[in-house]
């Protein structure tokens, strides 16, 4: 990567000097920052090494230390509290900073009590809240500890990112939120609105939304997971989500990674070390790359960092294509309600390799997606599963039995619990799976309310059933992709935000390439690729279930009909009760 030095007035260079001179950050004399071309669409800063200036006098095991950042100079939930401690104020105005500290703690506590914020709480979000408060208080005339002010104004508010967080203040419901809610955009929008309202009330509305958007984007993209010992000398570690000044200028590239960060176990300093065997020996000046993530998954990178690594020959990347819940795949029932009861993430992982895309059918989660597509053995329905809209009656009966009291006592509470769990915004219900009956034989004499693991074991013990489920799934998948193509093509005409358009382009590519391979009779499943067992495939996890999916299940009028007898719902009521007895004793 060509090195472009920063100008003398550049904020990044000025902030770098601040942290070196004021806060004890140590640089190898061969390390510098400059313009990186890793992301062409924004002004991106990167870390570089000038080989002729590199100090290798402390070379150990082929590693050279490039950076050393004292733990007290990083920003985590722990160190921020230390920054706000009077003992850390040193020569600054103690009285003014004590006033700031008290106000920060008051506002932080107030913000964390907002329901949307508490529901989505994470270390990253809490760091965002702190810096929103710091920014608002500084604009209001409060004094900040100098390390916080330097980092806020010299780094966080000057970082250019093209992520959804950068665009959230211009989002429109029809072009940005609804079409990409399945990727977490609805949650981002909710959090942004809550933080904007909080900031407007406490600091005034001027520039409020742009500042919040910038801080959400910058902090989300710059956070690192820093390891810490459980106790001195321990081999057990935990990680803290941490902002690490200077180190956070270093960019990601799994193919060209030549350095890594770690913790000095003696001092708790964060260090960046260069692997002398991994850099290009021909280059006099070269960029330093670390790995933000061991796998390149497009949606995660676009959401978090505002870019995704470019595909190259023999380089595998992934796209976790989440299903838009506005599309209903089966006529017999709401498939997304099925997935919700079974705690199945409605997401299909694609492998991108050598210009082609493949469904990753080696994942256990792929088999889980297939469950509702297993045909009814009697041939009366599309699926072997049927839904009981009055499932709350089972909950009431089991609760009554577990506690030895009248069933009527729990009926309304169980009705409310089941209904609220179904219509709630989360992608999982979290209750015992007693809503769906699985029909197991053609005679109709064996049926039960199985959980996910039981279904996988019973239904996919037969290769024939599995193959038939895949065929049905593929037919429905083509219907979904046709519908989704129309949605994405229409979006292009409506000019969504830049980050939304980027994600739409990735999804369009995957869908169109999938169709092209089908038309050319090329493999679309990973296990159909020749010698796939010999091709190394990294473990790329699916995203976790959304806490807010924006999808609302609408109960049908069947709830007004008389409850179905338990005898018609399962052949194994005793086994099912014993399986969940402890839950009904403690939770309902």
From TrEMBL:
In terms of InterPro entries, this protein maps to: SET_dom (IPR001214), SET_dom_sf (IPR046341)
Superkingdom of the source?
Eukaryota
What are the TM regions of this chain, as residue ranges? none
PROSITE patterns tied to this protein? SET
Q: Which Gene3D superfamilies match?
A: set domain protein methyltransferase, domain 1
| Domain SET: from-to ranges | 135-293
Can you name this protein? LAQU0S04e01090g1_1
Q: Which organism is it from?
A: Lachancea quebecensis
